[in-house]
Design a protein that fits this description.
It contains seven helices and ten strands. The chain is an alpha/beta fold. It has one domain: Rossmann fold. The strands form two sheets. The chain has an eight-stranded mixed sheet with strand order 1-2-4-3-7-8-9-10, with helices on both faces. Strands 5-6 form a two-stranded antiparallel ribbon. Helix 1 crosses helix 7.
């Protein structure tokens, strides 16, 4: 299906009030994530994968300069996209499913993982979240998380990283493990059920499996 110019791929069974996991992706249809979930998840779910994301625009909470020469800047369009996501895209997904979900959660990888966590502060739609190899290095995000309240207190939040992700000469990216740990500690101290899992490899290793593992964890 298409909504707000985005291709949306829905996996699961229509008409069932299973949890709805909304996943924003840079490219692809998310079929590999769903295939992995079918082998490891202990509960039925519906997965809605939203593609055609303008990544550096729609997943970034505010402006940030490019990380490397000749890269694109981050232009801070997350709030605008979140309005579309909650106002029309998710209602269209629910209409397609034909049932009100048990709850709605959000998942994402890399900058999509940052957006998943950011959305917890900007809306009350999501009760659980997955940030797989999330971009917690993003300038001022740790401070934002410290100072702001959730739209609705989440019940379960999953964080993960690769154990080689912080091994970089880039000053911002090298902070990702420390900052992810600090956001995780904030959530734990608030009484949220949360975990921070380290996976082998760099940022680009086993992305689909890392997402599936996070989604399976929040479904428990």
């Amino acid at each position: 299906m298409i909504a707000e110019g985005k291709h949306i791929y829905i996996y699961g069974e229509k008409g069932k009030a299973a949890p709805l996991i909304v996943m924003n992706t840079f490219q692809g249809n998310g079929s590999d994530v769903y295939s992995a979930l079918c082998t490891i998840a202990e509960k039925e779910l519906n997965l809605a994968v939203i593609s055609d994301i303008n990544w550096n625009e729609e997943m970034s909470p505010w402006e940030c300069a490019p990380l490397y020469k000749n890269d694109s800047p981050y232009t801070g369009g997350a709030d605008k996209y979140l309005d579309k996501l909650t106002g029309s895209i998710i209602p269209a997904i629910k209409a397609e499913l034909g049932a009100e979900p048990e709850y709605t959660a959000i998942a994402g990888y890399s900058l999509g993982g940052l957006f998943a966590i950011y959305s917890l502060y900007r809306t009350d739609v999501f009760s659980r979240a997955v940030s797989a190899s999330g971009s917690m290095w993003y300038p001022s995000f740790l401070e934002y998380a410290e100072k702001n309240n959730f739209g609705k207190m989440p019940s379960r939040v999953y964080f993960s990283l690769g154990d080689r992700e912080a091994r970089t000469r880039n000053a911002l990216l090298s902070t990702v493990e420390d900052k992810t740990g600090k956001v995780y500690d904030q959530y734990k101290n608030k009484g949220i059920e949360t975990t921070f899992e380290m996976n082998p490899g760099n940022h680009f290793k086993d992305a689909d499996l890392r997402l599936a593992k996070g989604i399976a964890w929040i479904l428990k």
